[in-house]
Amino acid sequence: MDFTTLGAAAAEALTLASFVGIGGGVLLGYVIGVIPGLSRSVAISIAIPMTFYMSPYIAISFLIGLSKGTAAGSAVSAILLNAPGEASSAATALDGYPMAKAGRPKTALQIGLLASVIGDILATIILIFVAIPFARVALMFGPYEMAAILAFALVFIAGLSSGSLFKGLAAGGLGIFLGTIGLDNQTGLPRMTFGYTELMDGMPLIAVAIGTLALSEMFVQSERLRHERGIMGVKLIHRPDDRITWPIFRKIGLTILRGTGVGTVVGVLPGLGPSVGSFMSYGMAQKASKNPEQFGKGAPEGIAASESADNAVIPAALIPLFGLGIPGNVSAALLIGAFAIHGITVGPLLLREQPELLYSIFAGMLLASLIMLALGWFGLMAFTQITKVPSHVVIPIVIFFCLAGMLLQGYGTFGLIILMGFALLGYLMKKFDYSFVTFLVAFIITPMLELNLRQSIILSRGDWSILLNRPIALFFIVCTLLALIMLAWRTVKTGKPAAGVPAD
Amino acid sequence: MVRKNFWSGIVVASFAVLALTWIIPNYAGTNPFARMPPDLVPSIAAWIMLICGVIITAGAVIEMIRSGQKPITTDIDWRGLGWALWPFVYVGAAIYFLSLFKITYVGIPLIAGLLLLLGERRWYMLLGCSVVPVLLLYMLSVYMMRIGMV
């Protein structure tokens, strides 16, 4: 490890601009996370246009800070309203809400915050120590290996993040199809642009991301308003005994460590996402507990298990992103788009070409965790007020920022029409239970997949036997086929999803 | 859900057929000298969609035969459908106005109108929630990004 680069990275992380950028990201994330229904991918997709004027380091750290803040903030509404800010905090509500109802809301919120921050910091440290050696190994990979790994990741995500494998694959197929629109990088021919010069660079990622994630979600939420109105929350009253104490912290310490481990493993695997991590961690904590009957009635371990795993998934999902350039979930896929906007190709080459940037981002992530702790601890009362903001006020403002985001990037009316088209597509995918996660990840990785596939075919001159000399590529091809068969068998046999939760 | 699967499977398969028979042959481009022609990846994607669409539809048909359901129902919640559709119409109309005026100018009535339609009647909420986001956008575009009013 180059200590000069490390020193420079630490120095950059401690500048005022860095504090303002990352702090702003965490604060915005916290606010958005507290509002039920606004997930971290919605937050990132709306925030990407805001990062255009920032430096690459500040922009990426801002978005990662936003992601972390959203994960921590979603626990507030889960505990006080029993309405998780996002799906991954649903496990937190199982014990958080009963504890808050029992007159200890501040204790529940503090347990959630501490578990979030500790899980997040530990997973970030794991990311730093794993991603760099991982990227060094990945630098030895050629196009065969990369194409095989990308295909494997896609099948894995399709199988695990959708209602059924076939729906997941259909969504992935549509993502690949739309991802090929634009100039063909070998022949330079316009491909499926229908004569529109605006499509020469491909479908605008911002339109696809904001449309399928944010705008479509607002349409879903506005439809839900017909049946669900009004907020029933727990009030936060000052009580001297309502705070986290050392015996409680000692009780949850091991649970936090276990949750971090579960969250890290789940985060590294593509397609699983924080919801699987938090519920898996909750289940393991319940099994390991001496009083499992207390779970669901306000057990502090339940909150700690869920929140530590939820937050550990975020840095862990960046391991395949920084190591291989493969996004494991939507948030990571959106980060690829943000990197691309700043002219950076994320993946193992980042370590070789811009190590200072990579180390600065790591330093920024640790700083974001500490800011999250400070903001969460001292701003607890203020954030609880946000839970009172009703959905019907949030929806118009978010729709406004969705439209403004497209115009800020200079797409004009054509971009807005594409945005509307993808919002309709995202809405239908959500209604008909097609995985928009698989769709978006497939759309984003298609150019990379096609490039590696093309290089493999040119290098091998169409001779498949060359794969016998590439054991890693062959291993992933076999894994892809096995995963496909197993997931198809499972879908046909049970008719149920393998995981069934979005890898947000 | 079975009926949803049936119709969505048909839509997916139909789109795939359209892509394979019209979009890809006419718009994906060909290069006989390239080892990997430009239409290969879109064709693979379309075949994946076609196979999956057929499987989803077939699964739904089998399920419908077993449970005695029909693919079409007369039990449609028209009010629910209207409630689901109006935000699309509203945003579609907003996009039309945005092709004529800058969002900084039409932002306030755009947000206020949507708030009113969603049931907000408090004047201070209408004013605050519609003015503050537009002001933030103005500051972002003019002073921070320096691209002028959008």
Q: Name the pair of protein chains with the most residues at their interface, and give those residue counts.
A: A-B, 66 and 65 residues
Biggest sheet features of chain A: 2 strands, antiparallel
Sheet bearing the most strands of chain B, described?
A: none
What fraction of residues of chain B sit in β-strands?
Answer: under 5%
Q: What is the percent of helical residues of chain B? A: over 70%
User: What is the overall silhouette of chain B?
Assistant: flat
What's the number of domains of chain A? Answer: 1
Number of strands of chain B: 0
Give the fraction of residues assigned to helices of chain A. over 70%
Distance between the termini of chain B: 43 Å
Question: Care to count the β-strands of chain A?
Answer: 2
Sheet with the most strands: spatial strand order of chain A: 1-2
- Which spans of chain B of ≥5 residues are poorly predicted at pLDDT below 50? none
The radius of gyration computed from the alpha-carbon positions of chain B, rounded to a whole number of angstroms, is 24 Å
Multimerization status: heterodimer
By secondary-structure content and strand pairing, the structural class of chain A works out as mainly alpha
Note the gap between the termini of chain A: 33 Å
Treating each run of at least 4 consecutive H or I residues as one helix, how many helices of chain B? 5
Stretches of chain A where pLDDT is under 50 for at least 5 consecutive residues are: 497-503
**Rg value of chain A:** 22 Å
- Average pLDDT rating of chain B: 90
